[in-house]
Automatic annotation (TrEMBL):
InterPro entries: Hydgase_assmbl_chp_CS, Hydrogenase_HupF/HypC. This is Hydrogenase expression/formation protein HypC. Pfam families: HupF_HypC. It comes from Pseudacidovorax intermedius. Belongs to the HupF/HypC family. One of its GO terms (molecular function) is carbon dioxide binding.
Amino acid sequence: MCLAIPTRLIEIRPGAQALVELGGIRKQISIALVPEVVVGDYVIVHVGHAIGRIDPEEAERTLRMFGELAAQEAQ
């Protein structure tokens, strides 16, 4: 099974690269598969590649669920 995480795109860089941020962590990823993205979009990231755009409301809902799961694991 694969896990893809929604993250917010904060900067587009040369060479089909971009910077995303999730929970204060920033990571450079490839946007070669989704060249239409713009700063502020949420993208689904899998192994360093944006594989699709996601609706902001759906992204926030998914991130909330991941947060709830993490909180349960910590107990």
